[in-house]
Design goal:
mainly alpha, Glycosyltransferase, three-stranded antiparallel sheet, 10 strands, globular
Length: about 400
């Protein structure tokens, strides 16, 4: 923070205070809501406890010394565990009153991953014991392991079934498997090294090192055909088609989870910086949005005009992902850049009198989505911790 001037440091401090206040406002006795209660949020079911949103918030709520938030972290995980499916899957979201659990159209794979990460975080930094939620953890792990390829040791999924839920990523998805490796590391699961090895061969097929497994070599051939090295991991790899749109979140998580080595991590950061994806605010989640004439375009992407070019998951600016961007920079020791990006993250959350806007149009910068987005506040606090070298950041 020493590289920042006094106004920037003051803005960061004010954003931290506003972030804590927002999390407290969005807290219910049963856990943290995805967004503040407004008419629009109620209509779009943002006043639910989401698996991914709540888990990210739990990591920021845990260990901050605010009693209500500490209790809310445990309550959030309890609410999701209470509605766990018989097969072990954690819901996409649950109703705060326990009356509703939703699992999405093709199944929501990342809610279970995020829930497990948050469970481990609370066990290490919160007030619960090391065996808390143990039965639910074992069922969740069993559900995920049932979807793991038995040689690649990567999870397989349908399209539009993770956080980018109207994007056509399917098969082996970068974002999902970055989380899977982190889960394996946290819970000491078997074959973590195999997961890392195949992750780096499938999602980065442009390196010279050839994979040994013949089906991996074939997928590498399909992925490379007609493409240049983008300086990033591919967003997904399927049988004969891949995603080269430049998935910022998945690549940042590959750094954060330790999957990317030092050279690849530097290339990812340099590519994102060169694309100016964090200007004026961090960060655009796609470097090369899919147009309607792109081979990967799906009709459902235009539903409600939501995922057209430079919008939503297709190139919008998401401040919560900006928090993970700052965390990755801090992990790599790029403290000066991380500090300046944290200041800009405070700026974007402060827009419209601290609206904590869900996302912004990637070109016009128009505020879009819900106000009072909980995970904006959470990842700002986590990024601030990471920059301070606090182990509770991840």
């Amino acid at each position: 923070m020493k590289t920042l001037d006094a106004p920037a440091r003051a803005l960061i401090d004010r954003c931290a205070q506003a972030s804590l206040a927002l999390l407290e406002r969005n807290l219910t006795p049963h856990g943290i809501l995805a967004a503040s209660r407004t008419e629009a949020a109620v209509a779009r079911r943002y006043t639910r406890i989401f698996g991914r949103d709540a888990a990210i918030c739990v990591m920021a709520m845990c260990g901050n010394g605010v009693a209500a938030l500490e209790q809310g972290a445990v309550a959030s995980l309890d609410a999701l565990a209470a509605q766990q499916a018989g097969n072990g899957q954690i819901p996409k979201y649950v109703d705060p009153e326990g009356q509703d659990a939703d699992f999405w159209y093709l199944g929501c794979i990342d809610a279970t991953l995020w829930w497990l990460i948050a469970v481990d975080h609370v066990r290490r930094h919160g007030s619960v014991g090391a065996a808390h939620w143990e039965a639910e953890v074992q069922r969740a792990l069993a559900w995920l392991l049932a979807q793991e390829h038995q040689h690649f040791r990567l999870l397989q999924q349908n399209e539009a079934s993770d956080w980018a839920d109207i994007m056509p990523r399917s098969g082996y998805v970068l974002y999902t498997n970055a989380l899977w490796f982190d889960v394996k590391r946290r819970f000491a699961l078997d074959h973590a090294e195999d997961t890392q090895h195949h992750f780096n061969h499938l999602f980065n097929p442009f390196q010279r090192d050839l994979p040994e497994y013949h089906r991996a070599r074939l997928l590498r051939h399909y992925a490379r055909r007609g493409r240049q090295d983008p300086g990033l991991y591919l967003s997904f790899v399927n049988l004969s088609f891949v995603g080269d749109e430049g998935d910022v979140f998945g690549n940042v998580l590959a750094i954060q989870s330790g999957l990317a080595g030092s050279e690849m991590s530097s290339r990812i950061v340099d590519t994102i910086v060169a694309a100016r994806a964090a200007e004026p605010w961090p960060v655009r989640v796609v470097l090369h949005p899919l147009t309607r004439d792109h081979e990967l375009w799906r009709t459902y992407m235009a539903r409600h005009q939501q995922n057209i070019v430079h919008q939503y998951h297709n190139g919008g600016i998401w401040p919560f992902v900006g928090g993970f961007w700052v965390m990755a920079l801090a992990k790599l020791g790029r403290d000066a850049l991380a500090a300046s990006e944290l200041a800009r993250l405070a700026q974007v959350n402060a827009q419209d009198d601290w609206r904590f806007t869900e996302w912004f149009h990637g070109r016009s910068l128009a505020p879009m989505g819900m106000a009072g987005q909980s995970w904006n506040a959470a990842t700002f606090l986590l990024a601030q911790r990471a920059l301070a070298g606090d182990a509770r950041a991840w």
